[in-house]
């Protein structure tokens, strides 16, 4: 796995206010990374720094080995992006907009543009003016624009904005396809986990300009069970002395994290029953990424 | 770079304001050319073109005018208003025609081609306003629409993007000016009489007559008009880049255009430093033959240097800020 986007101790200060603080992150080829954070966390600022729209106050960013500051041209040759909103010239048709950007990049053919229009399903409406497009259509036109130079790194800021469920599913499919088949690195930002959870390999959670954690989406979380028993204290002691299992008491319920060596709930039930502890209920506690996100970004 | 300029050009030509401006330029040219025909019938007939023997015709005319004026002047008592107008008009005509006779230059018709072209340069102020409208939106509009991001995340450097915009602004100024003179010339071919010689006779600010070759006079006029447009365009372009606000850029430039002369004249009476103001120098028409320079210490080379320094400063500042500033819109 080769790293395509490297952020090294990146910081941004605007008017003496630290918008991004000492943020380091490496994103690999063919990986889909989600940038997750509440509104105002600094996601868009970070994205603007990666594409060189704003100066980096501290640290450095490189794309495919090219420093974004010193080798902007070389770095941008590998990047396609939508920053914030998919703004296009409203008085041009979709086709004219794409032709406009085609002229800005060397070596993009008309056939390539036609192919992209087909790819984002805009063939029927491509000759209509962009001002008559829905937000979803603008979003798709933006994606076509971003893919024009066959980028190694695709950056999509809030790409799910304005997409209907079908459009979202399609976007998800496109992104997975680009990452797996063409080995494109994709960075998507969102303030809603549910919208990007399914398309990302990893999710970086940002809060107040700081990188809180990077989580693997596929990572198995430890299973936890909640036991409602007649003698919680006794049960807790039992677990600790006999099986060396730490458990917590929560509202008279016993919460147990299952260790690998004792992964069968029935085992514990048996122990309780043998020790005359009545069991009223056993419930698995599921903590989704959503809960963790809320927990991590809570004030 | 050519591709970038094509892009910019396409954007300007898809704007409604550009279409309105072009229609307006052609319309105002037509108005300018046809209006003398509507209101000046009498005089146009009176002094028409001359035949082959123009010297004797003109001498005859001079004599008639002179006699008419003398009769009026010799009247007893106070002259009536219309009489005094006729008398002084006749005397003026006598002076002009005598100059023509003196220098052996056949006089043109009253409504002649050269005067029409020279007179049309007063419409350059209007072109200046149109150029301001386009130039003030050139950079700021991209920021307003948010499209600036799409331009800057490509492989083109910021300087190149700005250059394409500046070049387009200048080309457009030239285009508007060309359109003005193309339509003026076309209309004038129908509405005016062609001048019999290539000499252009004009009245100086002292009230005397002088002549020069029309080509060189007109070339000087066009050059000064274009210099003015370049300065206006650069000023509006700079304000648009610095403030990223079309309204401020438009208002600032129009303010300089309309208040410039007044403020300059006021400051000239206070300090000698006023001659370094761009508004004192941006019109070079005052250096045309027969015109007068009203501010002490101004010469053509001085004005050219001041203008070049200002334009370089405007453009330089635009590049510096455009390359440096964060794009947050």
TrEMBL record, chain A:
Top-rank taxon? Bacteria
Q: Does the keyword Transport apply?
A: yes
A Pfam family of this chain: ABC_tran
- GO molecular function of the protein, one example? ATP hydrolysis activity
Q: Which UniProt keywords apply?
A: ATP-binding, Nucleotide-binding, Transport
Q: Domain ABC transporter: where?
A: 5-233
Q: Which residues form a coiled coil?
A: none
Q: Which family does it belong to?
A: Belongs to the ABC transporter superfamily.
What is the recorded name of this protein? ABC-2 type transport system ATP-binding protein
Organism of derivation = Alkalibacterium gilvum
TrEMBL record, chain B:
Record's protein name: ABC-2 type transport system permease protein
* Cellular component terms (Gene Ontology): plasma membrane
Give any Pfam family that matches: ABC2_membrane_2
Ranges that cross the membrane: 20-39, 117-139, 166-190, 214-236, 248-268, 298-322
Molecular function terms from GO: ABC-type transporter activity
Keywords in alphabetical order: Membrane, Transmembrane, Transmembrane helix
Note the coiled coil stretches, chain numbering. Answer: none
Organism encoding this protein = Alkalibacterium gilvum
Q: Which domain of life is it from?
A: Bacteria
User: Quick check: keyword Secreted in the entry?
Assistant: no
